[in-house]
Design a protein that fits this description.
By secondary structure, the protein is mainly alpha-helical. 77% of the residues lie in helices and 0% in strands. It has 25 helices and no strands. Helix 3 packs antiparallel against helix 5, helix 16 packs across helix 20 and helix 20 crosses helix 21. It is globular. The two termini are 18 Å apart.
Length: 493
């Protein structure tokens, strides 16, 4: 009896020790184990087969719209071919980007060993319901596109099936983001301030990443060596502080945006908002008139129109406004001779700019079938206005996705065929981007704990800015941290 008890207790101790080793219990430890202690090397891509399958499936999303493109081109073979190829490639990129986001968000930050670092207070039941609702309403809202594919392909049922299977990732991702925002528990007063502090810290890493990208090759090499010395040194928390100090850039008071600059940046969202409204109106109008072909009253068409429009509105709004602001800021920086190159543009400028120029041309022609649907749905000057603004919105939406994928393609080429120095700079860039993603995904509690390892000078400047002090953070951490009785397993041992 005693030997059995001893045996069971030994196994339990081993289990607890194993769990304590396997589980990463804080954001600081995650940064240490996953970033600081990891060598800069090309790592195996996670969930590679799933990602390849998702990208392959997305290719077929717009094949059912080939006939619509030729109708818009008035059956001109040359124009019809350009519109069709652009539409297929453009929306292949958009669908692939959405699918990859879904895969990464589901797998990358859902491992059990990091659950306390990245999981918010939304219950598992609600999270499951969000996924189920996103898939159900995402597939349901594709009914309009499925009908268009059916109508323009001689009533062939194969094409609507392709729409449901291959052209739903964008809508599902949009719904997922919408539901998560809707059901996310609202933060209290201190959490709202922590959110603003987190945004500042993330921005400081982004600014530093951009600075490093803009350095000369000698400057990049020097920065890389200095960071490696910190990573290879000993020192625990002090080492982590030095690392974070090296990869962040804190603006001084003179560099902070003035009220005029802030107003200017906000004004950049206005054109994007206007284009988003046109995109939303396209969904609403085309869905309503499409449903009217089947239902005589206005109630059911209105419900269908609302379902489709609301399913796609959120992600369209985010990406179109973001892309519009990015284009306007790039134009401003270009004319001010202050344009900052991305890492791919810096390492392979000719290849990157050539591919992006081609991608932009493709994005311009990718909205042809939607313009045709608007022509068939309504006439008049308002229809022309919607067609023009809708084409611009789609061009910005598609180009954003294509530029992102081109950057990844160029990075892949550099990692395979680039020089030793180029690979190191790119891997460093990826590491800093990984840090940004980790900080953004962390919970309020873990981020509040993380603030203790930031350099005192940097921390004081940020806390003073938002009128937060160390005592407020300490009280919040004590209040939100799991109580000792919740660790009964370890205490029992």
């Amino acid at each position: 009896m005693k030997s059995d008890l001893y045996h069971n207790m030994t196994n339990l101790i081993i289990l607890v020790i194993f769990m304590s080793i396997a589980r990463i219990d804080s954001l600081e430890n995650f940064i240490v184990k996953e970033l600081i202690e990891q060598p800069l090397e090309v790592k195996k891509v996670k969930n590679l087969k799933t990602k390849i399958a998702a990208v392959a499936i997305s290719f077929f999303a717009k094949l059912p719209f080939v006939n619509v493109n030729f109708k818009f081109a008035q059956n001109n073979i040359f124009l019809g071919s350009i519109f069709s190829i652009s539409n297929v490639i453009g929306y292949w990129a958009l669908g692939s980007k959405s699918s990859l986001h879904l895969i990464e968000e589901h797998f990358e930050f859902n491992e059990s060993k990091t659950s306390n670092i990245f999981h918010d207070r939304t219950s598992k039941i609600i999270k499951g319901a969000i996924i189920a609702k996103s898939i159900f309403f995402g597939l349901s809202s594709r009914s309009l596109n499925a009908y268009i594919a059916y109508k323009y392909n001689n009533n062939n049922l194969f094409y609507p099936l392709v729409i449901f299977l291959c052209d739903s990732s964008f809508t599902i991702y949009s719904l997922k983001l919408s539901f998560e925002k809707l059901f996310r528990k609202k933060g209290n007063g201190i959490e709202k301030k922590i959110k603003l502090i987190k945004k500042d810290i993330v921005t400081s890493v982004e600014d530093k990443k951009s600075q490093v990208t803009s350095l000369s090759k000698e400057g990049q090499t020097t920065f890389f060596k200095e960071l490696q010395e910190i990573k290879n040194s000993e020192g625990g928390t002090e080492k982590t502080k030095k690392y974070l100090e090296k990869v962040t850039y804190v603006k001084n008071i003179n560099e902070e945006d003035t009220k005029i600059k802030k107003c200017f940046k906000l004004a950049l969202y206005i054109p994007g908002l206007q284009l988003t409204i046109s995109r939303v109106l396209y969904y609403a109008i085309s869905c309503f008139f499409g449903a009217k072909l089947f239902f005589k009253d206005n109630i059911i068409p209105f419900i269908i129109s609302f379902l489709v429009t609301s399913s796609n509105a959120y992600l369209n709004g985010i990406w179109i406004m973001s892309s519009t602001k990015s284009v306007l800021m790039s134009l401003k920086d270009f004319f001010n001779s202050s344009y900052k190159l991305s890492i791919s543009e810096r390492l392979r400028p000719t290849l990157t700019f050539s591919l992006k120029a081609l991608a932009f041309l493709i994005s311009i022609f990718s909205g042809a079938p939607f313009a045709q649907v608007m022509q068939d749905s309504m006439k008049g000057s308002f229809s022309i206005y919607i067609q023009i603004t809708l084409s611009i919105a789609i061009a910005l939406l598609v180009s954003k996705a294509m530029f992102s994928i081109i950057d990844e393609i160029v990075k892949f080429i550099v990692l395979r065929k680039g020089s030793f120095e180029e690979k190191n700079i790119l891997l460093l860039n990826n590491e800093m981007q990984r840090l940004i993603n980790v900080l953004e995904k962390s919970t309020f509690l873990e981020f509040a704990k993380f603030l203790n390892i930031i350099s005192e000078t940097q921390l004081k400047a940020i806390l003073d800015k938002y009128k937060v002090n160390s005592q407020m953070l300490k009280e919040y951490i004590e209040k939100m941290s799991p109580k000792e009785e919740e660790r009964s397993l370890i205490e029992a041992v």
